[in-house]
Amino acid sequence: MKRLLIYCIALLAGQLAIAATPARDSVEVNASQLADAIVERAKDFLGTPYRWAANGPKAFDCTGFTKYVYADFGYKLGRTVPAQSRDGREVSGGFENLQKGDILIFGKRHNKNVMGHTAIYIGPDESGDDFSFIHAAKGGVMISKYRETYYRERFMGAVRILPDFVREAPKDSIDLSGLSEMVVKPDTLKLGSEDRRIVILGDGKWVLVGEDGSISAPDGDSALVLYADGQWRQIKSSTKKIPKIVEASKAEEKPETASGSGSGAQFHTIKSGDTLSALAKRYHTSVDSLCRLNWITKTTTLRIGKKIRVK
Length: 311
What we know:
CATH superfamily of the largest domain: endopeptidase domain like (from Nostoc punctiforme)
Radius of gyration: 27 Å
CATH topology of the largest domain: endopeptidase fold (from Nostoc punctiforme)
CATH class of the largest domain: Alpha Beta
Number of domains: 3
Distance between the termini: 77 Å
Helix content: 10-25%
CATH architecture of the largest domain: Alpha-Beta Complex
Largest sheet: 6 strands, antiparallel
Number of helices: 7
Order of helices and strands: HHHHEEEEEHEEEEEEEEHHE
């Protein structure tokens, strides 16, 4: 009996020790690894059908797709295109500033100056003036290119949900111009005339190693992009600039019918004092119907100047 008592006490102590130890049910990854995972998750749905207002996983519309994919990684995005355009930090500058995982904003089919479509940025091509993205479109979840006329004409900007990949380079980083005359010691790696190697320096800079072992600094207008599969590309700075996201101008206060839709959809621009119940009474509908039409809940804050669909 004494031995049994000692065994029970020891077992209980061990269980308490285990209970006191926090569970490790997650792993730490950097922003780049997280972006890779987000894009790979998005690719799991390639070919999934498109359906308006569908939230997945058997069918998606554009914002339903981006919202669903990001939700798998703990990020809560809005359910409309304007809402997602405000969910992150606006990206500015040339196309080379776009980062894998950024949310891209495009104009509507019938009005390219009004936000109407979202996608997830994948990466650039070698020219720096084209890029690919994954999205839910009329043909289902697919990968498309900026160079396609339809998307090129409607690209309105990008927002960043994740942290930036690369920290700001130190101000006292070395000048690479003096390395152009250096030669690295030959090794057993055989390089063809079309092959190149890179050396990444401790200060965040990088250099190219030629076939003969000579070192040269990269062009001043190029960037190095590393991929999760071990590949890398030298991307030239783009001549194209990321548009600045501009929300649609304020609509008139009277209800608006969606042009060309043939659906008779009506919209109301929120004014001070408007409530869902008051709008439901004014337009002879119900609060539940307003919530379904606008992907909102009864507790959603109505923002002055924003449109809400009433029919």
